[in-house]
Amino acid sequence: MAVTKVVMPKLSEAMESGKIIKWLKREGDRIQGGDVLAEVETDKADVEMEAFGAGVLRKILVHAGEKVPVGTLIGLIAEPGEDIAAWLAGAAAPAAAPQPVTPPPPSAPEPVAPAKVAPAEAARVKASPLARKIAAQAGVDLRVLQGSGPGGRIVRRDVEGARTGVAAAPTAAPAAPGVEFEDVPLSQMRGAIAKRMPLAKAPVPHFYVTSEIAMDRAWELREELNLLEGQPKISVNDLVVRACALALLRHPGVNAAFQGESIRVFHRVHVGIAVALDEGLITPVLRDCHAKSLAQIAVESRDLAERARARKLRAQELSGATFSISNLGMYDVAEFSAIINPPEGAILAVASVRRVPVVTDAGLGVGRRMAVTLSCDHRVMDGAMGARFLQDVKRLLEEPLRLLV
Amino acid sequence: MTHPVDVAVIGTGPGGYVAAIRCAQLGLSVAAVEDDRPGGVCLNWGCIPTKALLRSAEVLGLVHRAADFGIRVSGVEANYAEAVQRSRRIADSRAKGVEFLFRKNKITLFAGRGLLRARDRVEVVGASSTETLEAKAVILATGSEPKALPGVRIDEKLIVSSNGAVRNEQLPRSLVIIGAGAVGVEFADVYAAYGVRVTLLEALPRILPIEDEDCSKEVARAFRRRGIEMTTGAKVASVTPGGPGVIVETDHGRLEAEQVLMAVGRAAKLAGLGLETLGVQVERGFVRVSPRMETSVKGVYAIGDVAGAPLLAHKAMAEAVVAAEAIAGRTPRAVDYANVPSCTYCRPQVASVGLTEAQARASGRDVTVGRFPFTASGKAVALGEPEGFVKVVADKGTGEILGAHVVGHEATEVIHEFAVGRTLEATLDEIVSTIHAHPTMSEAALEAALGALGQAIHV
């Protein structure tokens, strides 16, 4: 059998449908396994869809700009002589069991069970019929609202409050005179964030541990490294990624995920690195950080970030993180905390390196300090474990030569 | 003697006794102060005994039209004095019920007038002794009393109030009722049923002026058929003894009757409570309260009629629970004053909740109205009670139930479907997707809601 069905792939846990941005192959093109067939817009990002089988792209069933549910037959790859009429006849209905178009990358951890946020439970929204109607008319997503009625039920005033909130949010463009507000429709990414964040925050009992790290020596080291010819530029974030990777090896309890009946402790460190985009954020995954040098981390994370901004990430680069880092250092941030990305057990929020007065043996001096806050899933770990991990991260960054060995 | 308690409640009407019981349930020690019988106006002189009298009037009305039901009766004797005696027995039993509940909840009843000496000290001036209550919180629930027109003195003989009328066993031959609100209309119903020539006077353009205009019209039509005279938009100039008893001069002419019933409203009983000395703020005759029912003086709460309109027992009970829970340190939900049902127990009964059609339209909303007459209801016709209708006023866009108005047999029971619906923020869709038992009076609610959606089946 030489007919390969091309179906809309499920590129992330949350993905329900995808839109073909454009086909990179045309009908009649010869395809090798692994060729990029098309670019697909998912709720998370634009990703490249790779071919699974070899042959000729005989038929494109879903054209650029169309959005279809996951599993829908979107094309057929077959040898030129093959009769594909029977396949086309069944094309109307989505395929029952979608064939994976992109095989899991060889280095990926064992597929992780969906986050224990019990989607069905979380999706049940307690809201009055009137609140539902007003929300539907006003385009307010009830799932992001906090109910003030009996038992946390969302009632009319909650929706009306949210509507006012939307109106109060600043919009990018200056409004025309006399126009008090405009309702900006949610982009697919914004919609996905709005949908997922309550599920990431509410069911996961977060706690936070903050530490201040003396970055003077790490700063000097970085400047020295960046003077070396033929070496990639190292960022503060690269140092943090490397420090976390090494510390996570020593504290596997932090490199872990809650599984309901058990805790899955990962032996490898895959770090999700949050990248800000205009319409939201995305967290590509840098795999096997524990086995990578500072230079490798620098090169690969820069590549991931650039392709994230260009919407050129592959699906497997968006999942499988065992730990995440969110860095707002470029915005002169004193300190912040981040929301854990389930099923990961922790995320590190990295603030700016700031020049602050410090007390030294000689009296008062100026030092570089950076605040980091670890958000931890209390079901996975306790405060002391998070603190010990953070202590190691701090030691690694304060004695940065350890990052090089 | 001084008695330390957690809460002192002054007044034991539907506000006071509910507050006392709720406080006791929440583990607080409670003293209740009453200078009359427990139960207040509601149980003793208002709601309950008048419902007993209205029932006698209703039965009498049924007996008179028994032939319609295939029953021939003769020698009918309607003894009004016995009807009043029955109403007194019922009132007494209800008042005893309150005393029982106090004992059950270990609430100490102090007989006498309560006087607020300090925000945590209540003096009870009884017939023989004076007691002092040291209370961490005080709840004022002294209720209200009938008002008279300026320059008119209620003597409870020629010029009576509802207090006098409700226990009067002697019927006058003719009666002028000044004021056609719930009290005036209910007494008109009772007295007319017993053959008294009744004239209702109302200063506003229609009887039951706070109800939806359609409701006023429906009751006026029924009253007219029963021979009750009604003069609306009439200003009373004077009420003086003379003629058969009393002469009432109005801008619509002179009326003479054996008796006049003053039903022009009620005033909060605040005099002699010591509010001025303590600095409790009073506005337009009522105590100013927060949503927690606390007055301007910390630790002093006010509920029921003293706390302002609407002057209804069920509103007082709702406020009582809020005050009690606030005192106990809980965070009660504030009373939803937009959702207090209003009920008048004349025949046909009138019940409403929320906005009238006129108010809804005046609010500028896009309004849809559904109306279902009981003449089209199998149950109402079988009962021989085809008067009235159900009217629902809703927002066209969302189906939000803005108001509901019911006139007819047991309208005061039918209304709660809409009250619950409004509390739950149900819309017309939820009303119409609820199966209503057939045949019932409540089916008319379903039909009215269907009508508002343009989907009525039985009209």
Can you walk through the features of this model?
The complex is a heterodimer of chains A (405) and B (459). Chain A is α+β, with helices and mostly antiparallel strands. Chain A folds into three domains: 4-92, OB fold (Dihydrolipoamide Acetyltransferase, E2P), CATH 2.40.50.100; 119-164, Irregular (Dihydrolipoamide Transferase); 197-404, Chloramphenicol Acetyltransferase (2-Layer Sandwich), CATH 3.30.559.10. Helix content of chain A is 26%, strand content 25%. Chain A has helices spanning 85-89, 119-123, 129-138, 156-168, 188-201, 216-227, 236-250, 294-309, 383-398; strands spanning 4-7, 17-23, 30-31, 36-41, 46-50, 55-60, 67-69, 73-78, 206-214, 256-258, 263-265, 271-273, 275-277, 280-282, 285-286, 313-314, 323-327, 346-360, 363-377. A six-stranded mixed sheet of chain A has the order 9-19-18-17-12-15. A five-stranded mixed sheet of chain A has the order 7-2-4-5-16. Chain A is globular, with a radius of gyration of 24 Å. The N and C termini of chain A lie far apart (53 Å). Chain B has three domains: 2-145 and 267-337, FAD/NAD(P)-binding domain, CATH 3.50.50.60; 159-264, 3-Layer(bba) Sandwich (FAD/NAD(P)-binding domain), CATH 3.50.50; 348-452, 2-Layer Sandwich (Enolase-like, domain 1). Chain B is built from 15 helices and 24 strands. The radius of gyration of chain B is 23 Å and the shape is globular. The relative contact order of chain B is 0.12. The model of chain B has no long low-confidence stretch (mean pLDDT 96). Chain A binds chain B through residues 128-131, 133-134, 137, 150, 155-156, and chain B through 333, 397-400, 424-427, 429-430.
Number of E-state strands of chain B: 24
Q: Mean of residue pLDDT of chain B? A: 96
Order of adjacent strands in the largest pleated sheet of chain A: 9-19-18-17-12-15
CATH architecture of the largest domain in chain A: 2-Layer Sandwich
